[in-house]
Amino acid sequence: MTSALRPAATATGTSTGRASGTGTGYAPCHHGEILQGVFLDHDGRRCAGLVTLPMAGPGSRAEFTRRPGTAPGALTVVPADRTKAARAAALAIAECAERTGLPPCGGELRLTGDVPVGLGMGSSTSDVIAAVRAVAAAYGLRMGAGTVARLAVRAERASDPLMLDDGRPVLFAQREGRVLEVLGAALPPLVVVGCTLGGGAPVDTLSLPVSASASASVSVSEADEDDVRACERLRTQLRRAVATGDVPLLGAVATASARRGQRVLGHPEFEALTAIARRTGAAGVQIAHSGAVAGVLFDPVAPGVRHRVRRCLHGLDAHGIPATRTFTTRRP
After folding, report:
1. Structural contact between residues 237 and 253, judged by C-beta atoms closer than 8 angstroms
2. Which residues neighbour 173 within 8 Å (Cβ) at sequence distance 6 or greater?
3. Which of 76, 201, 222, 274 is deepest in the core (most CB within 10 A)?
4. pLDDT at residue 20, rounded to an integer
5. Which pTM was predicted?
C-alpha cells in the first residue's frame, strides 16, 4: 500500500466506540467517475484505475455491537441483504481480534444511510467502509486507510477510494486497493447537474462482466497498447487540469472517459446528454461506469452559470432524462 493512504481524518472518517461494546462508523458516497480505464503503475504494470467525483451529503452509517463469547460466525446484519458489509464486518472482526489479542466473536451490525443503491454512487463501498470502521471502534481501534482499503477489496472484489478522507483526487486501483497517483491538492470547483440515465434503473454491479466493472471499456488483459496510451493521455490531461484549475480541460477528460465507457454501458441517452452540455456551454459530462448516475459539469465562475444550469435542466426534462440534484464541489 502506498504512503498516500493515510489514516482517516477524524472529521470525516467517523469511527467512535469502546473496546467493551459498541462502535460506530461513517463513510461518504461519490457521484460516479471522472476517469476510468487501464493505466500503468510505477513498475509499468497495467492496472484498472479510476478517479471519482466527490459529493458531500449522502453516506452510510454503521453501528456494531460485540457479543463476546459467541462464535465469530454469529453475526447479525440489519438490513439482512447487505452481504458485502457482512463480509467486511467478519474480516474486520478477525483483523481486530488479531491486533488486540481478544478472541474473535459475533455481534450485530446495523446499517443506515441515504446513498441511492445501484446507481454507481459507491453505496456498497460506503456500507463496507462504515462497517469496518464501526467494528474497529467497537474494539477500541482506528484503522488506517490502507488497512480499510485492503479489507474493502477483500469484501467486495473492487472498492472505491472512499476511505481516503483528505480531499485529494487520486487515481485509485479499485481491484487492488491502492493509490496509483495523487493527482494534486484538490479538484477545481465544479457545479454538477446530476441526472440518471436508463430511466434511473439500478445496475447490479456484481452481474456485470469483469471488463465492465474493472475498466469501463476493456478488461486489463484485453487492453491493447492503444487503450493504455489513450488512458494515460487522459491521466496526463487530468493531472494538468487539477494543477492549473482548468475546468474545461477536466470536463474534456471526463467526457472522453464517459464516451469510452459507452462501449460497455451503451446508454441510449448519452448523445443527447453531450448535446445538452454543448448547447448550454458546460465543460463536459461524467458518468458512473457501473451505474446510471451522470452529471453535466459547469465552471462555477463562468459568465451566466445560473442561466446555463437552468437551460441544462430544461434540456434534460425535454429529453426525458430525470434530473436528481445540482451541487457544487469546492476545495476543502
Report:
1. yes
2. 41, 47, 48, 49, 179, 180
3. 274
4. 52
5. 0.88
